Inverse folding.
């Protein structure tokens, strides 16, 4: 069947590209590892964590931020793979993708799924290294986290796709870092629990609470400890649907790409 | 005339700025049509509409009889496109790239392998199948783009300035090759701003400021005037 054939080919191509570029894997791992091994080590003394779900005992700061760093991997990947579509380098392959004789939503879904799959591979490598330096989760948690990471990856990929279709100014990665990645990452529960944020500023805590990235991180965190978090799953799913619908609207040939005029 | 590519009264504007007005062009099968226009004439806009990157409500486009707006998938399935931008993945092998394009058009398994092998054979590149595209020179990469656009055996072939960045020999070779494809029955639309890629027997359409200034057989259009002179006269007169 052509639909499935094309879907598989898009995933396969993305995987080959990823595995073919060793440098990309290393670069993708260095970022969360620096946070884990350097930032967390320096920060653990400054931040006292009480027992909050899903943890049943006092935990070290490294353990706390590990799920957040998985979220960060998904966030960077989602932005990178989707926004690379609008750069010249990828312009041709995106055009080619969109001229395949298949519905556009299907092609974009395949593209986002491929990105989420890469995020999953990177998270697996990251968690393996983290385990190597003594940051363990329950072993079943690693399995339960797979769908959670995939869902987070899909949601953040859809966000990137939506941005790539709407915002012309975000054509360089620095802009994306400043206006999307940093706010989303810092205004979330990735680095500090929300109650800690509330002590500092109730307003900021409220912003964190509606940030879909917070829910992506919590979804991964709870999954790693084998606890259900339906609220987080619901939020992430909702965000996925909203971003996905907006991305499809943005890539609708009757409007979408016309905003970025060719010559 | 067997229906190849049909463009009927197509207009498009970016906000208030009109990019194409009432463009009408018919390219039957077996015909090489050169779409000649200076930069900014609207060629890229027309290509974006033809490849359904975006759509317009004014006018109609048909590909081998299929309406692009009403039956986009049937129309796209009959169309091969060589874009101005490269579409090959430099880090993947020649063979892998072609298999990917085949799969996007629903060709998989042994059929895809056979067509890939056949395409490489035709390009004289069979022995380079396992090399990454990065190892190929510009001319070979362009030829591969062409092979890529033909792998699903389209009836209409669109090329958007396909010789950009090539040296004279590679340019001549690819121009000749695509003329052969038209002789074998493909409807070809070749956008360019270089008059020396156009032959006297080709159909010629001159686009300037979003309007079609001329459409006919090159020999008839230019009479005794060299094509280059005529092109400059037509597109310069309004400047």
């Amino acid at each position: 069947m052509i639909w499935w054939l094309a879907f598989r080919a898009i995933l396969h191509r993305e995987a080959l590209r990823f595995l073919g570029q060793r440098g990309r894997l290393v670069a993708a791992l260095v970022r969360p590892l620096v946070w884990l091994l350097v930032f967390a080590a320096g920060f653990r003394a400054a931040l006292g964590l009480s027992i909050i779900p899903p943890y049943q005992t006092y935990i070290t700061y490294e353990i706390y931020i590990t799920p957040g760093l998985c979220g960060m991997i998904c966030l960077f990947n989602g932005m990178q793979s989707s926004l690379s579509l609008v750069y010249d380098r990828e312009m041709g392959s995106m055009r080619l993708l969109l001229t395949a004789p298949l519905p556009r939503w299907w092609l974009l879904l395949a593209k986002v799924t491929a990105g989420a799959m890469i995020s999953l591979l990177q998270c697996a490598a990251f968690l393996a290294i983290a385990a190597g330096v003594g940051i363990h989760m329950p072993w079943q948690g690693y399995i339960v986290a797979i769908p959670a990471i995939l869902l987070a990856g899909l949601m953040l990929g859809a966000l990137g796709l939506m941005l790539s279709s709407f915002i012309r100014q975000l054509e360089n990665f620095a802009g994306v870092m400043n206006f999307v990645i940093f706010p989303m990452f810092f205004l979330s529960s990735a680095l500090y629990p929300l109650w800690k944020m509330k002590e500092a500023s109730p307003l900021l805590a409220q912003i964190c609470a509606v940030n879909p990235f917070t829910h992506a991180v919590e979804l991964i965190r709870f999954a790693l400890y084998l606890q259900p978090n339906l609220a987080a799953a619901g939020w992430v799913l909702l965000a996925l649907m909203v971003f996905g619908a907006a991305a499809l609207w943005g890539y609708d040939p009757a409007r979408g790409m016309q905003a970025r005029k060719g010559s | 005339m067997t229906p190849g590519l049909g463009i009927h009264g197509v207009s498009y504007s970016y906000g208030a700025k009109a990019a194409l007005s009432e463009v009408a062009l018919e390219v039957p099968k077996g015909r090489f049509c050169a779409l000649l226009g200076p930069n900014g004439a609207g060629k890229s806009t027309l290509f974006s509409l033809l490849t359904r990157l975006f759509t317009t409500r004014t006018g109609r486009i048909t590909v081998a009889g299929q309406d692009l707006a009403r039956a986009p998938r049937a129309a796209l399935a009959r169309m091969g496109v060589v874009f101005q931008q490269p579409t090959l993945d430099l880090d993947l092998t020649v063979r892998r790239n072609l298999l990917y394009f085949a799969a996007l058009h629903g060709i998989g398994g042994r059929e895809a392998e056979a067509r890939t092998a056949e395409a490489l054979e035709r390009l004289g590149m069979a022995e380079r199948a396992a090399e990454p595209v990065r190892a190929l020179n510009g001319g070979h990469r362009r030829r591969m783009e062409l092979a890529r656009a033909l792998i699903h055996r389209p009836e209409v072939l669109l090329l958007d300035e396909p010789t950009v960045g090539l040296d004279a020999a590679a340019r001549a070779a690819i121009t000749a090759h695509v003329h052969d494809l038209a002789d074998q029955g493909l409807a070809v639309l070749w956008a360019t701003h270089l008059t020396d890629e156009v032959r006297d027997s080709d159909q010629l359409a001159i686009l300037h400021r979003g309007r079609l200034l001329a459409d006919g057989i090159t020999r008839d259009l230019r009479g005794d005037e060299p094509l280059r002179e005529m092109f400059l006269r037509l597109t310069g007169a309004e400047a």
